[in-house]
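New to this. Explain the following:
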Amino acid sequence: MASDEAMTKPRARRPQRADARRNRERLLAAARTVFAADGASASLQGVAREAGVGIGTLYRHFPAREMLYTAVYEQEVDHLVAMAESLADAHEPVAALREWLQALVALVATKTGMVSALAISAETKSAVSQATSERLINALGSLLDRCVARGSLRDALAPRELLHAVVGMCLIQDVPDWQVRVATMIDVLIDGLRSSPRD
């Protein structure tokens, strides 16, 4: 009898582990949505509700608010790094750069909401930013280098400068449709970097 129980226990736990993974992914997706949409008014209850789970499930996965913030932010950075690699293979260089910068804007929207909603300490923000900023700069640099190598854009901005320019445009916005406005400004910025025909 005891032997039968021992054989069935691992099988009984497997679906729970799969459910836990799915719940975690749902929570991360919900957090991105809620933080980007609600900003300072976002709540962890709202995240749990958006994910379709109870608040207890959220706290089992993320016992502290900072843990949820960090997990969402790092997942978004992972996505942007992978996106830069795929765009480099599949798109015309300037179109790839523009699409990646638009995705960066979405990340800033999510991050801005998290910073205000979760009241992350300056030390935490700094630690998270330092751990990921170089990855973003390198990803952007690979796309920018392709544009310069093709002669599509001038070598006028370093990747770090371009990253700061776009993030800065995001942070000065205070209207509901600010992402649309930043998209227009990104187009203007890219047009300003285009190579001029030589005489």
Summary: The chain is about 80% helix and 0% strand. The radius of gyration is 21 Å. Residues 1-15, 117-124 have pLDDT under 50 and may be disordered. Residues 2-38 form the longest helix (37 residues).
